[in-house]
Amino acid sequence: MFSICMLMPASISIFVDRKINNKEKNTSDLILNYLLYTFLITTIMNSIIFLISSDKMLYYSEYTFTYDFCIKYMWLSIIISIILPCLLKVITSNISIDLEIRKKKRNEKKKSSKKSSKNTKDK
Length: 123
What we know:
Order of helices and strands: HHHH
Number of helices: 4
């Protein structure tokens, strides 16, 4: 039950992600996305369990995964696995980060150092 609860929702997220983006991805991208979704969903679910739980479980054990717990966990994780790709799509489509890296040329370095040395000599 533990592996189904932890690993299955990320598969649903990958499916929703592929439907939203309408493009095929290669195998390495799918694996990386699967691992990302697994990490995010598990982190969100563990946070929810920690906040809601009365005995503040710090680790999982076999007695934790009762049938009742697994049903609740799976329904909540399925909802999160459907919402998460939509949320990531909205974030990535509205936020972009552009980096521009310029490399100084050797001549520019020499000119700038000569100018700065002239300025210090003039003073």
